[in-house]
Amino acid sequence: MSPDSPRIVVTRALPPAALEPLHSVGQVWVSPHDRPLSVAELHQAVDGASAIISMLNDKIDDDVLDAAGPNLRIVANTAVGYDNLDVPAITHRGVLATNTPGVLVDATADLTMALLLDVTRRVSEGDRLVRSGAAWSWDISFMLGSGLQGKQLGIIGMGHIGQAVAARAAAFGMDVAHHSRRPVEAGGSRRLPLDELLATSDVVSLHCPLTAQTRHLIDAEALRSMKGSAYLVNTARGPIVDEAALAAALAGGEIAGAALDVYENEPEVHDGLRALPNVVLAPHLGSATVETRTRMAELAVENVVATLLGKDAPTPISV
Ligand code: DGY
């Protein structure tokens, strides 16, 4: 590879086999750190880059684009969500932005069901009890949870992941309703206005992207409008929920519980949530299977290779 061949920056180590195709189109720099790059490190790393393979915790804004300079042709985000990218700033410079839709649908839907079952059946709470060594014994009224059959799951955001959750929940006997911006072909699921969905659902599960419109969509008022027996599940993006309002609603018994995979100021978690027994807290594991993460890396690489060869990238972000 000649020294003036395109510089490709990968901000976090990805499976080496997935990165292999990059070596035929440019010089590859992979972060040596087992943590996200700091802002200063990111600025330094992208200097002169033609392609950046970013992770969801890399904020790609005007400053990063300035640091990269005029060679930059693509920012390939290794995630379906792209709220970490300033897409207008990227496209304004004639740079392509891509993401990894499709390949993480099943993994994220599976984790949503795992969290939903965990919080409604108190699995993590029971695990903590057993590990604590505290006395317990089977009892007819011991640690009762809430069954799913016939209960309404209200899905907010009926894209591919929302639909995959709907199919799984239907198999558990749940009655699925959804709220989405556009009507979608969604099996037997009814489309409801947001206020009706919140007021009637036994479990509300979030699957919409984080945008200016969805930031704090679940605020104090939304939580107040939910049933006292309802649960909230969030495997989408943390800032869709006002975490302080959620902690207060849970502490005040306004809803029965919550299961969260994502946080407003990730990786920090509101102290009020950590203190509550009826909250399941996962560390952003939605797409965290070997198969899915490998496929995400491969798709990010496919986007870069196609772009640097002057071909159409498979999954551009359309604005
Ligand atoms: C995504 O791709 O947006 C997921 O949050 C990654 O786990």
TrEMBL record:
**Listed transmembrane segments:** none
Q: Establish whether keyword Oxidoreductase is in the entry.
A: yes
GO cellular component terms?
Answer: cytosol
Question: What keywords are annotated for this sequence in UniProt?
Answer: NAD, Oxidoreductase
Q: Which Gene3D superfamilies match?
A: NAD(P)-binding Rossmann-like Domain
Q: Which residues form the D-isomer specific 2-hydroxyacid dehydrogenase NAD-binding domain?
A: 113-286
Q: Which GO terms describe its molecular function?
A: glyoxylate reductase (NADPH) activity; hydroxypyruvate reductase [NAD(P)H] activity; NAD binding
Sorted alphabetically, which Pfam families does this protein's record hold? 2-Hacid_dh (PF00389), 2-Hacid_dh_C (PF02826)
Show where the D-isomer specific 2-hydroxyacid dehydrogenase catalytic domain sits: 8-316
Q: Would you say which domain of life the source belongs to?
A: Bacteria
Q: Which PANTHER family match?
A: 2-HYDROXYACID DEHYDROGENASE YGL185C-RELATED, 2-HYDROXYACID DEHYDROGENASE-RELATED
Q: Which family does it belong to?
A: Belongs to the D-isomer specific 2-hydroxyacid dehydrogenase family.
- The protein's name is Glyoxylate reductase
Source organism (scientific name): Pseudonocardia cypriaca
Classification of source organism: Bacteria, Bacillati, Actinomycetota, Actinomycetes, Pseudonocardiales
